[in-house]
Amino acid sequence: MAVVTTIERISKYVDQDVTINGWLFNKRSSGKIQFLQIRDGSGFIQGVVVKSDVSPEVFEKCKTITQESSIMVTGSVRADERAPSGFELTVKDVEIVAIAQEYPISLKEHGTDFLMDHRHLWIRTPKQHAILRIRDEINRAIRDFFHERDFVLVEPPIITPASCEGTTELFEIDYFGQNAYLSQTGQLYAEAAAMAFGKVYSFGPTFRAEKSKTRKHLNEFWMVEPEMAYVDFEGNLKIQEEMIAYIVKRVLENRKMELKTLERNTESLENVKAPFPRITYTDAVKLLQENGFEFEWGDDFGAPHETFIAEQYDKPVFITHFPTKMKAFYMQPDPDNPEVILGADLIAPEGYGEIIGGSQRIHDLELLLHKLEEEKLPKEIYEWYIDLRRYGSVPHSGYGLGLERTVAWLCGIDHIRQTIPFARTLNRVYP
């Protein structure tokens, strides 16, 4: 009896018979031999059908299989250094589950709009499959990192009564006759949970109604947002660099095949070890000015600025102490210079830009009330958040990591729309 297994685990069954339940990705023939490219969701493998080694019925059956037909293939596992996975399957039998109709995505080149319209099928192809397997690895690494350090996972609401960051780029919904919004961050709620559990993180979808068409923006994306009681600015940076180094190490160790499929040069990723370099916002402005950029103190960095700054280092770099007026109301001003905040953005190498934004949070009640008034935010909506400063306030810090930007960086791909199974952008809400 053949063992039913997956392509990912096939190395355990060399010289044994196995059955793979999957689909036909591609097929070619050289007369008396047919080569079946089989996928099963865990990987890809070639099945070799030799006419003299199988029954006439099996050989003829293989001729009828169309691209993406579902099949159950039984054969003997053979090690082969020439194969991308290191193994091939000498086919003994094939059972057809369903013959696919003419498949819309052929192996020729297709335009981006066509592929995004057929995203439900495009994710079956090797490169898209590799990207999403790496996303899964990053996802699991993040959860493992936090749970190994005794963080508690909390789930903030997706429907909120107001902006968490004082912006207007929100998706408004009718919530039983009153205005509500899709959340742009779970941070404020995570702060409340941190006052109950000490160290928490949220991990879920967030929504921003920016009318942006850049390769780094989505309107629905996933954020990882830890919040930590009794952690200051320095402690916040330390946990960020430890987390990034942990994630990169996991991907390099566990997703070698996927990185190879993407033709990702991993040399730069192997440099990603804590600690990371730092540059203050003020020094970054001077650096840009000295190198021909028209940039003034108080301006926000764009992609060219972040890319140039990142190019000065061989690993991710923190830009720290941004102007207070540029950042959200809850960020703690530097006691030594209230014009800047105790916060930082982490910039990824190779032009991938900001992947983390974080800060120490304001813990003083009067200062928080002043900031809300200064930014003309409605105090009544934030009363529950103000309560955190009334009842047992402590210094605390947190940050948010954009999952899709991290996936794009580690995969080395050009556009963020490929980093999520079904992208939501300015002009795309289908499929």
Automatic annotation (TrEMBL):
Protein family membership: Belongs to the class-II aminoacyl-tRNA synthetase family.
Biological process annotations from GO: asparaginyl-tRNA aminoacylation
Name the EC number(s): 6.1.1.22
One Pfam family of this chain: tRNA-synt_2
Family annotation (SUPFAM superfamilies)? Class II aaRS and biotin synthetases, Nucleic acid-binding proteins
What reaction does this catalyse?
tRNA(Asn) + L-asparagine + ATP = L-asparaginyl-tRNA(Asn) + AMP + diphosphate + H(+)
Q: Please provide the record's keywords in A-Z order.
A: Aminoacyl-tRNA synthetase, ATP-binding, Cytoplasm, Ligase, Nucleotide-binding, Protein biosynthesis
Q: Which residue ranges does UniProt annotate as crossing the membrane?
A: none
Q: Which PROSITE patterns match?
A: AA_TRNA_LIGASE_II (PS50862)
MF terms from GO for this chain are: asparagine-tRNA ligase activity; ATP binding; catalytic activity, acting on a protein; nucleic acid binding; transferase activity
Q: Where found in the cell?
A: Cytoplasm
Q: What is this protein called?
A: Asparagine--tRNA ligase
Report the residue ranges that make up the Aminoacyl-transfer RNA synthetases class-II family profile domain in this protein: 132-421
Subunit structure as annotated in this protein's UniProt entry: Homodimer.
GO terms under cellular component: cytoplasm
Keyword Mitochondrion listed? The answer is: no
